[in-house]
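Revision sheet: structure tokens.
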Amino acid sequence: MRVALHTRLAPGHEDRYDVDHARVPDDLATAMARAGITDWQIWRSGRDVFHVVDCEDWEAARLALAEEPAEHAWQRHIGPHVVPVTRDDGSVAPLVAQPVWTLAAQQEAGA
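Predicted:
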């Protein structure tokens, strides 16, 4: 499955956020893989940050990461840079994305 997340950076934290994401800690990458996450891409436009996460099951991955010391350490480190975009109840609102079209798939199909 694929989910999209939207977060926003605190003013003035853009450069530090980019530097911190040049490479996430290896123990965090390992924890993500163990949780069933196969890819996590991040794009930034100004202070808006967009994440696309490919995983087996987002809720299961999220719950598994919540138990990981590497995730807790990362959130303590990266948290000051981020202002989450949340739902009314305060939770981060993932968007479960259904694929509609990709150029690559069309080209592979020879259409």
